[in-house]
Each structure stands twice: as structure tokens, then as C-alpha cells.
């Protein structure tokens, strides 16, 4: 057997190792998901290097390196990977702890879902880097393994044709490209440029490995390649890209509709916890409201979250990492509301809060859970800047919010603005009184922004305030179509922020303005307005503000062009309460339609149930149907398939390779003339020898001697061995006579030839050790 050229060995090693950076480039679309260039480079390069070096292990033992490679791959996946990606759980940043190993095992299978479920940037949160490690470790191993399957110094077959086997090494890299694109973002990271660069590198590597690059033709190839790449890159800029991204089709496991309509729960804050401190906030700028739920869909009975979980909609709650990016793909393009000062505030939840809506402020850039709050239970909506917990917040729950406050634009800017382009659900079953009331309130205004200010001013000045509780002037709860009609058609408007916020949002929709209702807390003064005096200085230099149940408030946000979502507070002063003996005739009776007031003895509720997916609490709640079979067992079956994926994927891959090789063997046996079938029969013997580890080169007689010396067989008797060698010599002679002689071969001779070919192939396989036999069966060398 000829000795291997050291220079060819070095070039083959470098060509195989060069697949590591190429494979890392294929995963570049995961860079925006992690948002950490240094982490992406470190994890990706180490994973790719570990996989490639493992594939390049060579041994002359009968078992070859496969047992060692398997052990090293398992160690790299479940020990080295967790140490790198979950380094904060290790001891001295080097030694894995039980927590490192357990979390590494879990994240190996769950990190891919984490990449889709958590909004980018993910950073080092939730073990998401294990997905990058797993992907590049195995694809780099497969790419290097397939590249090593064909010697670098033998790019051509014995018949002089180019052996395309090394091209198979590019397939795992294309898998990396596809998976990273599916797990990436809809915009990606320069996808056109990166795609063209990757394809150019793969083309160059394939040409290098097949030794098709000639120095005299290099200039001509460059002159051909540059225009082709320019046309391809120009096409990506001209043609709109429609990327299939899994995160845009992922439905979060949390369903916001399992909660009662947040606004219908408003009056319970006042009734049950009027004087109880529910939320304490440290270091929040004075006079800052805190928001909980944002609702943009009105179904005729209640305001609730939208039906669609599309980006920017009020029900689009996603898990977040350690950072919250300022905008979401597909979100509001015109949301340019001026950003105020940055803040870092600590929130504490007290006894009695008991809701899942997380109080936040401004536009958050990060939320750090503290006591009694897990990041796995935390969801955030970047379209509405609101947060939600999968479980109700218990007493002493703490968390920290960082971000920027939103500054309300000047009145003049609002007055001269046009309606924004935000997409909101259509109003279902609007109150009958809306068209006339909207026309009367905005009759002298021609610009959308001025109309919004006119509605806010009219409700704030002409309305009366009452919670409708014991001792208050009768004011029914609810904010459905009946209650809004009652408010607008009565002798005077009487209600609290639940009714006024709902009314203004509906009037704005009537005038073509995108609107939504916000429920939260404001630091109220005696009249119910926002007051900075509620914020107190701490001895340590910080600030503290306590929000009680009576501080609950609902207000309206309207989307205006170039201004984004602007807050409006239409509720009258809380000191403007009607007296039972007071004449409630409004200052200008012509502005409202007079109707006989309904009985106000008992609070009225809307008597019809919500439509769609809205839920109403209390006695009117709909009976919930039991979970279906797939709901109960689908998740268990999915987990079983995910955890057993290394087993069934390996078995499936083996079956595919065996079936493909059997199909190629059948094609060689049955297709073509008898002469071609005989030639293909000898080629199948030669290919089997190559796949078993030999290198039979030269003429058929030389190949016969190489096979006889390298594969003596393991027959029971010496006579059987000699018989097989005689058959091999006969097959060689017949193939030579058929190829170079003038006598045509018959179908009978071809059939007899293939019968002996099958015997020789079985004899060769039976003479190999067990592991080497399976390696030969699964080898892809000289397959074509």
C-alpha cells in the first residue's frame, strides 16, 4: 500500500478544519437572537472546533475511532457544552456541578424551543446558547466526517473522473443555514450578503477539495464569480424577502384570555382595597403612572385583549431574556414617542394584589425577577409595554424594571397631528349613541389630534365622578354598550375612570383614531390628578411611592402620526361628585341627547355575555370545556419524541443510507446493456473495498491483488477462501474481456456475473470484524 504524502495529509487536515468557520458563518442568523457577538463567536467556534477535531480522529484498530468519537461527542455535548454555555453554574468556572450537568441535559433538548419562545435579544439567559452549541457541534462533526471519508490526495476515480463525494460535506452546513434561518428573526442579519458569501465560500471549498482550482485559470474564475455574486446580491435587494421564521408562528403557552377582562375588575380595587397599599415602588421618578394591562378590543360588553397574537397586538405576550429590545419585528413603525429620562425602579407587591398583571413603568429595557417571581413565568408585550406573570403575584414579590419614561408631547403638537397607522381590532356592537356624541364633541375640530383633545376636555369638564359604592351617588359598574349609552344619553354623565376611559376610546374609534384602554395606578392627589407630592425621599437618598387601591385608574392611549401612543386622562376630578338633591343638568343641554334616566337604585350590569374569546368573571362566567385528548397527551408525546430524538434520528439515518445504497446496487445490476452491467458489477466490488478501508487502484488485476492482500477473509476453511479468490480472478478476467474484447456479452452472462458478485461481496463483509463490517455498510466513500 503506498505511503501517504505528508503534504497531502496537511492540506487535507486544513481543508477539513476550514469547514469550522464556514459552518459558523452559516449560523450568523442566530446572532440577532442572542444579541451578544462575543458569546456567539466563542460558543460557536468552540462547538465547531470540538466537532471537527472529533471527526478527524484516526486509528488503525479494527474498531476504528468510532467508539472513541462517540464517547467524545457525548462528553462534548453534555459536559463541555454546559461548562461553556452555563458557566455561572460551574465551580471556579471550570468544574461542572450537578446543577450544570442537569441543566445542560435539559437545555440540550429544550434550548431550541427557548430560542423561539423568548423574544430576542436572549443573551446568556435560560441556557439558550446550548442550542448554538448543539447545532454546530453535530453539524461540524458530520461535515468533517464526510470530508474525511475521501482522501485529499485522490480526487479522481481510477477511471479518471472526479469523485464528487467531498461535496456531501457541505450538506451539514446547509442544515446549519436552514436551522439558523428558521430560529432567527424575520429581518435577519444582512441575509442577502451573508447568503452570497456563504455560497461563494462553499463553492471555493468544493473546488479546492476536488482540486479543480488551477493557478492559470484563477483569474478567469474570479472574473466569472464576481459578476455572478453581484447579480445575486442585487437580486436580494430588489426582490422582497419572505422569510419563514418559527418565532412569528409560535403561539405562547400562556393564554391571556384565561384571565378576566382587566377593566371589568377595576372597581374591586376601590371596593376591597381602597386604603390598602398594594404596590410599593422605589426610585421611580415622581409623578410617574404605572401600567398593568392594555386592552384594544371591544366586543360590545367589555374591553379585552385582541384576538390575534400578531406582533404589536395587545395579546402578544412573549417570554423575555435579560434585555428587551426597543422594537419588535412587525411592530408599530410610527411609534416615535419622545423618550424621557432613564430609570431603574424596584417594585414590591403586597398582600391583596393577587393579580397576574405585572405593574411596570415607561418603556422597559429589562425586567429582573426577585423574590417569588421566576423568569420562566414572566411575559412581556413590546407593543403595549406591559408585562404578565403566568401565576398571580403573591405578597412580597419583588422585581426590578429598567427603562425610559415616555414624555407626553406638547398640546400644540397633539392638536396638529394626524391619525397614526397602528392596527387595532374593529369594534363589535358599538353603542348607538357614539356617532351623535362624537359629532357634537368634535364638530369644530378638523384635525384628528385636535378631536382627541376635544373629547378628553369635554368628558373631563362636563362629567361627574362617582364610584357607585355605598354612600356614593348611584353609578352602575361595567363599561359595555348599555352602560356607555346610559352615560352619554343621561341628563348628566356620572361614572368613574372605567366608564370614561371606555367612552373616550370608543369615541376616538368613531372618529377613525386607533385607541386602546390602559389599566394601572397613578399617584393621585385629593382631586384624583397625578401628583408628585406622593413620592417621598428615603433616608438613603432614594425615593418611595406607595400605591393603594384607591389609586387604581383607567386611561386612554391614542396613536397619532409621528407621536406614537399618547396618553389621555378623560376622568373628571374625583371631588366633582354629584349630590342626590343637585340639579344635574349639564352646562350646555344642547350638547347631549336628553333621555329619561334609568332607575339608579341598584348597579346595573350588562345582561349579555361577551362574544368571541372574552371571559367574564363571577356568576356569568361560561362553563369551560375539558381539555381534549391532544391537549392532555400531545405534550407528553412531544417530549417523549424530543428526548428520544438522538435514538430515532440515528436509526432513521442508518435506514436511509442502507436503502439508498441498496437502490444504487439494484440500478447497477438491472440498468443498461449486459456489458455495462458486468462493468458495474466489478465497480461495486471495488467500491466495497474502498468503503472497507482499502485503496484498490490501477488496473482490475492490481485491484484484485490489493483486495486479496487486504481482505483475506475469515472463511471456515482454506478451501472456501481459495474458491472465493478464484471467483474474484474470474470476475476480473471477464470484466476485462468485456471491456476490451470484441465479443458482446449476453444477458445470461451478466446475470451469472452478478450472482458471483453478490457472493464475493458477502464474503468480503463476512470476513470483516463486526464494527468494521457496519462501518463498511454505512460508508459513503466511492458511492457514485
Summarize the structure.
This protein is an alpha+beta fold. β4 and β5 (303-304) form a beta hairpin.
Helix count?
23
Helix content: 40-55%
Strand numbers in spatial order across the main sheet: 9-12-7-2-17-16
Fraction of residues in β-strands: 5-15%
| Regions with little confidence, pLDDT below 50 for 5+ residues | 328-338, 586-625
Termini separation comes to 23 Å
Main beta sheet strand tally, sense and closure: 6 strands, antiparallel
Compute the CA-based radius of gyration: 37 Å
Quantity of strands, as a count:
19
Shape summary: elongated
Describe the structure.
It is a single chain. Strand 16 and strand 17 (543-548) form a beta hairpin. The protein folds into 3 domains: 6-247, no CATH class; 256-618, no CATH class; 653-778, Four Helix Bundle (Hemerythrin (Met), subunit A). By secondary structure, the chain is α+β, with helices and mostly antiparallel strands. Helix content is 43%, strand content 12%. The protein contains 23 helices and 19 strands. The model is unreliable at 328-338 and 586-625 (pLDDT under 50). The strands form 5 sheets. It has a 6-stranded antiparallel β-sheet, with no helix packed on it. The protein has a 5-stranded mixed β-sheet with strand order 1-6-10-11-8. A 4-stranded antiparallel β-sheet has the order 3-15-18-19.
Amino acid at each position: 500500500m503506498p505511503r501517504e504524502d505528508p503534504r497531502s495529509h496537511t492540506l487535507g487536515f486544513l481543508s477539513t478544519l476550514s469547514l469550522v468557520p464556514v459552518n459558523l458563518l452559516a449560523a450568523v442568523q442566530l446572532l440577532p437572537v442572542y444579541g451578544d457577538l462575543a458569546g456567539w463567536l466563542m460558543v460557536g467556534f468552540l462547538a465547531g472546533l470540538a466537532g471537527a477535531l472529533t471527526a478527524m480522529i484516526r486509528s488503525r484498530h479494527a474498531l476504528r475511532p468510532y467508539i472513541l468519537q462517540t464517547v467524545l461527542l457525548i462528553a462534548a455535548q453534555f459536559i463541555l457544552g454546559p461548562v461553556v454555555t452555563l458557566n455561572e453554574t460551574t465551580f471556579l468556572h471550570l468544574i461542572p456541578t450537578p446543577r450544570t450537568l442537569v441543566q445542560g441535559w435539559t437545555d440540550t433538548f429544550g434550548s431550541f424551543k427557548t430560542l423561539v419562545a423568548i423574544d430576542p435579544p436572549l443573551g446568556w439567559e435560560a441556557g439558550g446558547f446550548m442550542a448554538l452549541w448543539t447545532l454546530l457541534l453535530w453539524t461540524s462533526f458530520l461535515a468533517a466526517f464526510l470530508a474525511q471519508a475521501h482522501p485529499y490526495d485522490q480526487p479522481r476515480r481510477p477511471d479518471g473522473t472526479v469523485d464528487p463525494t467531498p461535496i456531501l460535506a457541505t450538506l451539514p452546513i446547509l442544515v446549519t443555514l436552514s436551522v439558523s434561518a428558521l430560529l432567527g428573526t424575520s429581518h435577519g442579519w444582512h441575509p442577502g450578503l451573508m447568503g452570497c458569501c456563504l455560497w461563494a465560500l462553499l463553492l471555493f471549498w468544493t473546488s479546492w477539495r476536488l482540486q479543480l482550482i488551477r493557478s492559470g485559470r484563477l483569474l478567469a474564475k474570479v472574473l466569472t464569480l464576481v459578476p455572478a455574486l453581484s447579480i445575486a446580491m442585487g437580486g436580494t435587494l430588489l426582490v422582497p424577502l419572505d422569510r419563514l421564521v418559527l418565532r412569528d408562528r409560535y403561539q405562547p403557552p400562556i393564554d391571556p384570555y384565561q384571565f378576566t377582562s382587566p377593566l371589568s375588575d377595576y372597581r374591586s380595587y376601590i371596593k376591597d382595597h381602597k386604603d390598602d397599599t398594594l404596590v410599593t415602588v422605589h426610585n421611580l421618578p415622581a409623578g410617574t403612572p404605572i401600567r398593568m394591562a392594555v386592552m384594544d378590543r371591544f366586543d360590545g360588553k367589555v374591553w379585552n385583549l385582541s384576538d390575534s397574537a400578531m406582533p404589536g397586538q395587545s395579546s402578544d405576550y412573549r417570554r423575555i431574556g435579560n434585555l428587551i429590545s426597543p422594537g419588535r419585528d412587525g411592530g408599530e413603525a410610527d411609534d416615535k414617542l419622545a423618550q424621557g429620562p432613564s430609570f431603574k425602579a424596584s417594585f414590591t407587591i403586597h398582600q391583596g394584589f393577587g393579580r397576574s398583571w405585572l405593574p411596570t413603568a415607561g418603556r422597559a429595557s429589562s425586567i429582573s425577577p426577585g423574590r417569588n417571581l421566576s423568569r420562566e413565568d414572566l411575559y412581556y408585550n413590546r407593543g403595549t409595554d406591559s408585562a404578565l406573570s403566568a401565576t398571580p403575584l403573591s405578597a412580597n414579590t419583588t422585581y426590578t424594571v429598567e427603562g425610559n419614561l415616555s414624555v407626553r408631547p406638547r398640546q400644540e403638537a397633539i392638536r396638529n397631528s394626524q391619525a397614526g397607522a397602528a392596527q387595532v381590532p374593529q369594534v363589535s356592537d358599538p353603542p348607538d349613541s357614539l356617532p351623535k356624541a362624537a359629532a357634537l364633541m368634535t364638530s369644530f375640530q378638523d384635525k384628528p389630534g385636535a378631536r382627541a383633545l376635544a373629547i378628553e376636555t369635554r368628558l373631563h369638564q362636563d362629567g361627574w365622578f362617582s364610584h357607585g359604592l355605598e354612600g356614593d351617588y348611584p353609578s352602575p359598574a361595567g363599561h359595555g354598550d348599555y352602560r356607555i349609552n346610559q352615560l352619554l344619553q343621561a341628563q348628566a354623565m356620572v361614572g368613574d375612570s372605567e366608564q370614561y376611559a371606555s367612552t373616550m376610546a370608543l369615541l376616538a374609534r368613531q372618529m377613525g383614531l386607533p385607541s386602546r384602554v390602559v389599566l394601572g395606578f397613578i399617584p393621585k392627589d385629593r382631586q384624583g390628578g397625578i401628583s408628585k407630592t406622593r413620592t417621598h425621599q428615603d433616608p438613603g437618598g432614594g425615593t418611595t411611592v406607595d400605591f393603594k387601591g384607591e389609586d387604581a385608574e383607567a386611561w386612554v392611549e391614542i396613536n397619532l402620526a409621528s407621536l406614537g401612543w399618547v396618553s389621555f386622562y378623560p376622568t373628571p376630578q374625583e371631588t366633582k361628585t354629584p349630590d342626590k338633591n343637585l340639579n344635574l343638568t349639564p352646562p350646555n343641554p344642547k350638547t347631549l341627547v336628553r333621555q329619561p334616566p334609568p332607575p339608579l337604585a341598584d348597579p346595573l350590569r350588562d345582561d349579555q355575555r361577551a362574544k368571541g374569546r372574552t371571559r367574564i368573571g363571577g356568576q356569568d362566567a361560561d362553563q369551560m370545556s375539558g381539555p381534549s385528548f391532544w391537549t392532555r397527551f400531545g405534550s407528553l408525546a412531544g417530549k417523549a419524541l424530543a428526548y428520544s430524538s438522538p435514538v430515532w434520528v440515528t436509526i432513521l439515518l442508518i435506514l436511509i443510507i442502507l436503502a439508498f445504497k441498496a437502490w444504487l446496487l439494484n440500478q447497477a445490476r438491472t440498468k443498461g446493456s449486459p456489458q455495462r452491467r458486468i462493468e458495474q458489477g466489478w465497480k461495486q466490488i471495488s467500491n466495497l473495498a474502498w468503503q472497507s478501508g482499502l485503496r484498490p487502484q490501477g488496473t482490475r488485476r492490481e485491484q484484485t491483488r490489493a483486495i486479496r492482500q487486504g481482505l483475506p477473509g475469515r472463511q471456515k476453511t482454506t478451501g472456501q477462501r481459495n474458491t472465493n479468490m478464484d471467483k474474484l480472478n474470474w470476475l476480473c478476467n471477464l470484466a476485462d474481456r468485456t471491456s476490451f474484447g470484441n465479443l458482446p456479452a449476453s444477458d445470461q452472462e451478466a446475470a451469472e456475473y452478478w450472482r458471483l458478485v453478490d457472493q464475493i461481496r458477502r464474503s468480503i463483509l463476512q470476513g470483516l470484524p463486526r464494527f468494521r463490517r457496519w462501518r463498511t455498510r454505512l460508508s459513503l466513500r466511492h458511492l457514485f
